[in-house]
Amino acid sequence: MADTAKNIKELLDNGFTTIERIYSTGEVEQILATIDQVDQTYPTFRKSVDLFAIRQFLKEVPETIKYIFNDNLKMVIRHIFGDHYFAVKSIYFDKPENSNWYVAYHQDLTISVDKKIDLDGFGPWTVKQNQFAVQPPLAILNNIFTVRIHLDETNENNGALKVIAGSHLKNIYRPQAIDWTNETETICNVGIGGIMIMKPLLLHSSSRTTNNQKRRVIHIEFSDQELPKELQWVERINFC
Prior knowledge:
A hairpin with a 4-residue loop joins β2 and β3 (52-55). It is built from 6 helices and 14 strands. It has a 7-stranded antiparallel beta sheet. The chain has a 4-stranded antiparallel beta sheet with strand order 5-13-10-11, with no helix packed on it. A 3-stranded antiparallel beta sheet has the order 6-8-7, with no helix packed on it. The protein is of the alpha+beta class.
Protein backbone atom coordinates (compact mmCIF):
# COMPACT_ATOMS: atom_id res chain seq x y z
CA MET A 1 0.00 0.00 0.00
CA ALA A 2 2.62 2.55 1.08
CA ASP A 3 6.40 2.87 0.76
CA THR A 4 7.01 4.88 3.93
CA ALA A 5 10.58 5.92 3.14
CA LYS A 6 9.57 7.07 -0.35
CA ASN A 7 6.52 8.97 0.96
CA ILE A 8 8.55 10.73 3.66
CA LYS A 9 11.23 11.78 1.16
CA GLU A 10 8.65 13.09 -1.33
CA LEU A 11 6.87 15.02 1.40
CA LEU A 12 10.10 16.59 2.66
CA ASP A 13 11.51 17.38 -0.80
CA ASN A 14 8.41 18.15 -2.83
CA GLY A 15 5.82 19.05 -0.21
CA PHE A 16 3.41 16.28 -1.25
CA THR A 17 3.06 12.56 -1.81
CA THR A 18 0.23 10.27 -2.94
CA ILE A 19 -0.80 6.82 -1.74
CA GLU A 20 -3.39 4.71 -3.53
CA ARG A 21 -5.97 2.22 -2.19
CA ILE A 22 -6.31 3.50 1.36
CA TYR A 23 -10.06 2.89 1.09
CA SER A 24 -11.97 0.11 -0.61
CA THR A 25 -14.82 0.88 -2.98
CA GLY A 26 -17.24 -0.20 -0.26
CA GLU A 27 -15.69 2.17 2.28
CA VAL A 28 -15.90 5.09 -0.16
CA GLU A 29 -19.54 4.29 -0.85
CA GLN A 30 -20.27 4.16 2.89
CA ILE A 31 -18.66 7.58 3.46
CA LEU A 32 -20.66 9.11 0.60
CA ALA A 33 -23.90 7.50 1.74
CA THR A 34 -23.38 8.94 5.22
CA ILE A 35 -22.78 12.43 3.80
CA ASP A 36 -25.90 12.15 1.63
CA GLN A 37 -28.05 11.64 4.72
CA VAL A 38 -27.00 14.93 6.37
CA ASP A 39 -29.26 17.97 6.67
CA GLN A 40 -27.66 20.44 4.25
CA THR A 41 -29.20 23.58 5.76
CA TYR A 42 -26.55 24.05 8.48
CA PRO A 43 -24.64 27.39 8.41
CA THR A 44 -21.32 25.58 7.92
CA PHE A 45 -22.60 24.16 4.61
CA ARG A 46 -22.01 26.05 1.39
CA LYS A 47 -24.01 25.01 -1.66
CA SER A 48 -24.02 26.51 -5.15
CA VAL A 49 -24.15 25.35 -8.76
CA ASP A 50 -20.36 25.00 -8.81
CA LEU A 51 -19.54 23.75 -5.32
CA PHE A 52 -20.91 22.01 -2.26
CA ALA A 53 -18.70 22.31 0.81
CA ILE A 54 -18.99 21.41 4.50
CA ARG A 55 -16.70 23.23 6.90
CA GLN A 56 -15.90 21.62 10.25
CA PHE A 57 -16.80 18.43 8.45
CA LEU A 58 -15.80 15.94 11.16
CA LYS A 59 -17.81 17.88 13.74
CA GLU A 60 -20.83 18.30 11.47
CA VAL A 61 -20.84 14.71 10.17
CA PRO A 62 -19.25 12.71 13.02
CA GLU A 63 -20.80 9.51 11.72
CA THR A 64 -18.08 9.45 9.05
CA ILE A 65 -15.19 9.34 11.54
CA LYS A 66 -15.30 5.55 11.99
CA TYR A 67 -15.06 5.08 8.22
CA ILE A 68 -12.48 7.78 7.52
CA PHE A 69 -10.01 6.73 10.21
CA ASN A 70 -9.71 3.14 9.10
CA ASP A 71 -6.69 0.99 9.91
CA ASN A 72 -4.96 1.93 6.64
CA LEU A 73 -5.11 5.69 7.25
CA LYS A 74 -4.10 5.38 10.90
CA MET A 75 -1.14 3.21 9.92
CA VAL A 76 0.01 5.73 7.29
CA ILE A 77 -0.18 8.63 9.75
CA ARG A 78 1.62 6.64 12.44
CA HIS A 79 4.42 5.49 10.14
CA ILE A 80 5.03 8.87 8.49
CA PHE A 81 4.35 11.30 11.36
CA GLY A 82 4.26 9.38 14.63
CA ASP A 83 1.68 8.68 17.32
CA HIS A 84 0.83 12.13 18.65
CA TYR A 85 -1.00 13.89 15.82
CA PHE A 86 -4.64 14.93 16.03
CA ALA A 87 -7.07 16.46 13.52
CA VAL A 88 -7.42 20.27 13.68
CA LYS A 89 -9.44 21.21 10.59
CA SER A 90 -11.67 19.42 8.10
CA ILE A 91 -13.60 20.36 4.97
CA TYR A 92 -15.63 18.33 2.50
CA PHE A 93 -15.55 19.52 -1.13
CA ASP A 94 -17.96 18.33 -3.80
CA LYS A 95 -17.15 19.75 -7.23
CA PRO A 96 -20.11 18.80 -9.50
CA GLU A 97 -19.82 17.40 -13.01
CA ASN A 98 -20.38 20.71 -14.79
CA SER A 99 -18.55 22.93 -12.33
CA ASN A 100 -16.83 26.11 -13.51
CA TRP A 101 -15.36 26.60 -10.04
CA TYR A 102 -11.59 26.88 -9.91
CA VAL A 103 -9.00 28.00 -7.37
CA ALA A 104 -5.91 30.02 -8.30
CA TYR A 105 -2.49 29.26 -6.88
CA HIS A 106 -2.29 29.82 -3.13
CA GLN A 107 -0.88 28.48 0.13
CA ASP A 108 -3.05 27.38 3.07
CA LEU A 109 -1.96 30.03 5.54
CA THR A 110 -4.69 30.01 8.19
CA ILE A 111 -5.79 27.77 11.03
CA SER A 112 -9.28 27.52 12.59
CA VAL A 113 -9.52 28.64 16.22
CA ASP A 114 -12.22 29.24 18.82
CA LYS A 115 -12.06 33.04 19.12
CA LYS A 116 -10.31 36.22 17.99
CA ILE A 117 -7.76 37.78 20.34
CA ASP A 118 -4.69 39.98 20.09
CA LEU A 119 -1.70 37.65 20.23
CA ASP A 120 1.86 38.28 19.07
CA GLY A 121 2.64 36.50 15.80
CA PHE A 122 -1.01 35.72 14.99
CA GLY A 123 -2.67 37.65 12.17
CA PRO A 124 -4.31 38.67 9.95
CA TRP A 125 -7.70 37.32 10.99
CA THR A 126 -10.73 36.32 8.91
CA VAL A 127 -14.24 35.10 9.66
CA LYS A 128 -16.12 32.66 7.38
CA GLN A 129 -19.56 31.40 8.35
CA ASN A 130 -19.00 32.40 11.99
CA GLN A 131 -15.65 30.62 12.14
CA PHE A 132 -12.47 32.38 13.22
CA ALA A 133 -9.35 31.83 11.12
CA VAL A 134 -5.92 33.33 11.65
CA GLN A 135 -2.48 33.14 10.11
CA PRO A 136 -0.23 31.72 12.84
CA PRO A 137 3.57 31.81 13.16
CA LEU A 138 5.43 29.76 10.56
CA ALA A 139 6.49 27.24 13.18
CA ILE A 140 2.86 26.20 13.59
CA LEU A 141 2.18 26.06 9.84
CA ASN A 142 5.32 24.01 9.22
CA ASN A 143 4.16 21.48 11.79
CA ILE A 144 0.82 20.84 10.03
CA PHE A 145 0.20 18.26 7.33
CA THR A 146 -2.94 17.78 5.25
CA VAL A 147 -4.53 14.54 4.07
CA ARG A 148 -6.85 14.82 1.06
CA ILE A 149 -9.09 11.75 0.75
CA HIS A 150 -10.29 11.20 -2.81
CA LEU A 151 -13.81 9.82 -3.16
CA ASP A 152 -13.67 9.95 -6.98
CA GLU A 153 -11.09 9.26 -9.65
CA THR A 154 -9.36 12.64 -9.92
CA ASN A 155 -7.21 13.90 -12.77
CA GLU A 156 -6.43 17.05 -14.74
CA ASN A 157 -9.90 16.97 -16.33
CA ASN A 158 -11.96 17.22 -13.13
CA GLY A 159 -9.93 19.47 -10.88
CA ALA A 160 -6.99 17.46 -9.59
CA LEU A 161 -4.63 19.70 -7.65
CA LYS A 162 -1.82 21.37 -9.55
CA VAL A 163 1.20 22.08 -7.36
CA ILE A 164 4.65 23.62 -7.51
CA ALA A 165 6.95 21.03 -6.02
CA GLY A 166 9.30 22.36 -3.36
CA SER A 167 7.44 25.64 -2.90
CA HIS A 168 6.71 24.70 0.74
CA LEU A 169 10.41 25.26 1.47
CA LYS A 170 10.19 28.97 0.58
CA ASN A 171 8.00 30.00 3.53
CA ILE A 172 5.44 32.62 2.45
CA TYR A 173 5.54 32.49 -1.35
CA ARG A 174 3.10 34.90 -2.96
CA PRO A 175 1.47 33.62 -6.18
CA GLN A 176 2.30 36.85 -8.00
CA ALA A 177 5.97 36.16 -7.29
CA ILE A 178 6.03 32.74 -8.98
CA ASP A 179 8.95 32.61 -11.41
CA TRP A 180 7.74 30.20 -14.09
CA THR A 181 11.18 30.14 -15.68
CA ASN A 182 12.38 28.20 -12.63
CA GLU A 183 9.21 26.50 -11.36
CA THR A 184 7.48 23.39 -12.68
CA GLU A 185 3.80 22.56 -12.36
CA THR A 186 2.80 19.03 -11.36
CA ILE A 187 -0.73 17.60 -11.66
CA CYS A 188 -1.58 15.28 -8.77
CA ASN A 189 -3.80 12.55 -10.17
CA VAL A 190 -5.25 10.31 -7.44
CA GLY A 191 -7.49 7.28 -7.84
CA ILE A 192 -10.73 6.67 -5.98
CA GLY A 193 -9.94 5.66 -2.40
CA GLY A 194 -6.43 7.12 -2.58
CA ILE A 195 -4.97 10.01 -0.60
CA MET A 196 -2.70 12.94 -1.20
CA ILE A 197 -0.62 14.19 1.73
CA MET A 198 0.67 17.74 1.47
CA LYS A 199 2.20 20.58 3.44
CA PRO A 200 0.05 23.72 3.82
CA LEU A 201 2.80 25.99 2.44
CA LEU A 202 2.85 24.06 -0.85
CA LEU A 203 1.56 26.32 -3.62
CA HIS A 204 -1.47 24.61 -5.16
CA SER A 205 -4.42 25.34 -7.44
CA SER A 206 -7.37 23.58 -9.04
CA SER A 207 -8.84 23.93 -12.54
CA ARG A 208 -12.39 23.83 -13.84
CA THR A 209 -14.01 20.50 -14.61
CA THR A 210 -13.99 19.58 -18.31
CA ASN A 211 -14.90 15.86 -18.40
CA ASN A 212 -18.33 15.85 -16.75
CA GLN A 213 -16.99 13.90 -13.77
CA LYS A 214 -17.46 14.71 -10.09
CA ARG A 215 -14.54 15.47 -7.77
CA ARG A 216 -15.35 14.83 -4.11
CA VAL A 217 -12.55 15.25 -1.58
CA ILE A 218 -12.27 15.29 2.22
CA HIS A 219 -9.54 17.68 3.38
CA ILE A 220 -8.21 17.05 6.92
CA GLU A 221 -5.37 18.96 8.58
CA PHE A 222 -3.33 17.47 11.42
CA SER A 223 -0.93 18.80 14.07
CA ASP A 224 0.76 17.51 17.21
CA GLN A 225 1.29 21.02 18.60
CA GLU A 226 -0.93 22.78 21.11
CA LEU A 227 -1.68 26.48 20.61
CA PRO A 228 -0.88 29.20 23.17
CA LYS A 229 -3.18 28.84 26.20
CA GLU A 230 -5.31 31.78 25.05
CA LEU A 231 -6.43 29.90 21.91
CA GLN A 232 -7.90 26.50 21.12
CA TRP A 233 -8.08 24.49 17.91
CA VAL A 234 -11.79 24.72 17.08
CA GLU A 235 -11.90 21.21 15.57
CA ARG A 236 -9.40 19.30 17.71
CA ILE A 237 -10.25 15.59 17.34
CA ASN A 238 -8.24 12.65 18.64
CA PHE A 239 -8.73 9.71 16.32
CA CYS A 240 -6.58 6.97 17.85
